[in-house]
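I am writing to request your help with a piece of structural work I have in hand. I am sending you one protein, given as its amino acid sequence and as whole-number tokens for its backbone shapes. Kindly check, if you would, that the fold set down in the tokens agrees with what the sequence suggests. You will find the record immediately after this paragraph:
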Amino acid sequence: MSSKLVPSDPAKVMVIRDMVPGTITTLSAPFWRFGLIKIGGRGTVVRLQNGTLAVFSPIALTPEVKTKLSTLGEVKYITALDIEHHIYLGPWHQAFPNAKVLGPEGLPEKRKKNGNEDVAFSHIFSKSKPVESVDADFDREFEWEYVPAHTNKEIAFHHKPTRTLIQADLLFNLPATEQFSKAGVSATSGILTKLFGAAMNTKGNVQKRVIWYGISAGDRLGFAKSVANIDKWDFERIVPCHGDVIESGGKEVFRKVFAWHLDLAKKQT
């Protein structure tokens, strides 16, 4: 992991926030795409009703994070939400070896090729063999959709009790103000960050075009079907890995960004 991508002192710049006190905690930190563009990174911890923890897109496992986790419960699930959000899987798996590790198809092979730490995956999400169940406790609180048509092989989760959509690169909400709030630099500084931020926010319509013409171009119909499945969920909040949390009105934002895909899916029914 290059210091150009992630902070060398994550404990100093990470924001640990009880987004839904007693249930959802977010771990937000700086992250630079290609070492140049400020997009931020975020891990999400959900405390299930049985007291165990599900971690999505884990980021740096700092002493402060470990302390926070010890007050919440036992880590039972660790999920890489796509083939890009996995660089901290090794340390988390080492710290919590009994936790079930979830991820998309292609990730184990990618990690092996890259020389990453060996991690045993309990559940691999694939197009040919869908994951129907993780276990009774997890299934009771979450529903999920694997999006193989996304270039990064996305897995989106809906935590039903809090009406929260948790996802990685499906939707950005730049700028990453919370994630850079302790970094001592502006989340919007730099020409490349400004250009990328202008495209990957939820205020205008550029992100809709980026996803339509770029990210989903390889299998637009397959992507549309996955988006339509997610749209059926009753979520209000969206927690992205990149950019600020959408605390309310998430369904309306989702429908705005994916309007063309939702229309395409409707035409097929």
Q: What stands out?
A: The chain has one domain: 10-267. The mean pLDDT is 96.
